[in-house]
Amino acid sequence: MAPTAAVATPPPEKSRRRRARPRRLPYLLIAPAGLLMLGFIAYPVLSVFSYSLQHYNVTKPWRNGFAGLDNFRRVFTEDDQFWPTLAFSAQWVFTQVTLQLLLGLALALIVNQTFIGRGISRAMVFSPWAVSGVLTSTIWILLYNSSTGFSRYLADAGIGEYGTSVLSDTGTVFWAATVTELWRGVPFFAILILADLQSVSKELYEAASVDGAGRLRQFFHITLPHLRDAIILATLLRGVWEFNNVDLLYTLTGGGPAGETTTLPLYVANTGIEGHDFGYASALTTVAFVILLFCSIVYLRLSKFGGDRT
Amino acid sequence: MTALLTERNGTAPRSTAPGSPPSARRRRPGRERAFDDVPRWQIYLPLGLYLLFTLVPFYWMLLFAVRPAGSTSLAPWPMTGAHFSKVWNERSFAVFFQNSMIVGVATLVATTLVALAGGYALARFDFRIKGAFMLALLCSQFIPGALMLVPLFEIFRNLQMINSLGSVVIAETVFQLPLSIILISGFIKNVPVSLEEAAWVDGCSRFTAFRTVVLPLLRPGLIAVGSFAFVHSWNHFLFALMFLSEQDKQTIPVGLNTLIGADSVDLGALAAGGVIAAVPVVVVFAFIQKWLITGFSAGAVKG
Predict the structure, then answer these.
(1) Which pTM was predicted?
(2) A271-307 pLDDT, tens per residue?
(3) Could you tell me whether strands A54-55 and A65-66 are parallel, antiparallel, or unpaired per DSSP bridges?
(4) How confident is the model at residue A219, as a pLDDT?
(5) Is residue A203 a part of any domain in this protein?
(6) Which residues lie below 8 Å from residue A97, measured CB to CB, with a gap of 6+?
(7) Interface membership of B258 toward A (CB under 8 Å)
(8) Which residue among A23, B217, B218, B271 is buried most deeply as judged by most CB within 10 Å?
(9) Which of B121, B181, B284 lies at the smallest CB-CB distance from A130?
(10) Where are the annotated segments for Disordered (chain B) (predicted)?
(11) Cβ contact (<8 Å) for A45 and B143?
(12) How many angstroms separate the CA atoms of A35 and B257, rounded?
């Protein structure tokens, strides 16, 4: 479809009045969005870049001033928290995106079938999508707490021990947080994939089953190629989102125990907000941004997004 | 959606068999056979397990919210409203609820209007900075809101908007805009331009044609985008935490965080606060979840 070409051609005489300012109209229409984004996204981004080259600490005003690349040198050579938090971020994003994709895909395929109770099942399994990070933390803190949580009832039944809290044990906290994030993350993938499944041509399945292809072969030769672009885009967006989002870990574990679950953005937030070291936090932000952009480009290249489809 | 598909087929006939539009709604004998030979247990068993995983946490929260303090019963009776009246009155959730509503509705209206204008421009015009604008929209998806807190705080401080709900509305709207514009321009592209041209020929102005012809067809898409904006701003935590320090200006997620961070967590009150936070989004979600699938499948994901 080429609507723009159709509009670009000069209109008939009759519609002259409305077309008096056709050149200005698109600019007027994007002006509100453009100005908001310039003022509240572009300008803050530029100030982050500029702060990253300065010493800027509210609590140590006598040191404030141009710093050159000093903050960046500190990030890579002196900071003993940068690499561990970056590594944890990578582990967190990879685990979340992989598991959310696999579970979300399975869930979408199931609720795409025709069965009794499909509408209500869809509504129920998708519902955690609408729940916030703080509320998710709230719910799972109730489940995980050691005195009246799930473990107590398991202990009553003779499984495990009383008084264990999975959130304060370094051995279990990763999986406890992972399950919590999966609970609200899987519906996102399931919704997107289910939406894309609606546009698979039914004729393809018919032809395949006439040719004797089983359900497994239909999945790998029809469904999966069709979903390719949607999956690439969804995993990328979700990966970026999981990297950036701090709501859940901030409220569920606070980055603990012993810094075990501190992601890079959470570390940055702590440095900037609680430590008031804006210059250094901005340098960390810049580094995080570059890493994210680099990984995204590599991912799009490797996955050949938008490439030839079957 | 169905009208949309029919319309599109009417204007641009596809090379499918005559009389069989590729609508997912149409029931065809072949389709039943291809899909319905899945054994029932292969649907109900995994679905049942996943439903347990989804619903038990919700039930757990409800249970704690209505169960008297100290009870360890797994059934929600005897029931008490004590926790609710405590968080609603003593913990100011009445105020938080009102603030969250204001922020949510204002963000919804602002996002939808601004994104409609921008989306229309992208879908229907060719102009010089179009490519740059699209690129800016996509790039902004990579900018972590959490890491923008400090500069945004300074901007709102200079505008004297700290402790005003307006700061949160602006921040939420701005970060909601890029995705909303991309989605809406996708929806508008799906409406054949010939419909609008027909209205122009009939003497409608561009705006009237848009309002009477295009807007009604955008309903599912707008519902999806608007509810996105509402749910996100209702849920979002960091902006409110940073920009609103006075207690009577705070929103529900900040209130919940305060309950979590209390020295000795009152689980009953926390659960009741959670239920209050969940009710509006669950209601919105129950209404929109059908539109969500159609909204997305209208080519939105692929732009």
Answers:
(1) 0.81
(2) 877 777 888 888 988 898 888 888 988 988 888 776 6
(3) antiparallel
(4) 87
(5) yes
(6) A235, A238, A239, A242
(7) no
(8) B271
(9) B284
(10) 1-31
(11) yes
(12) 33
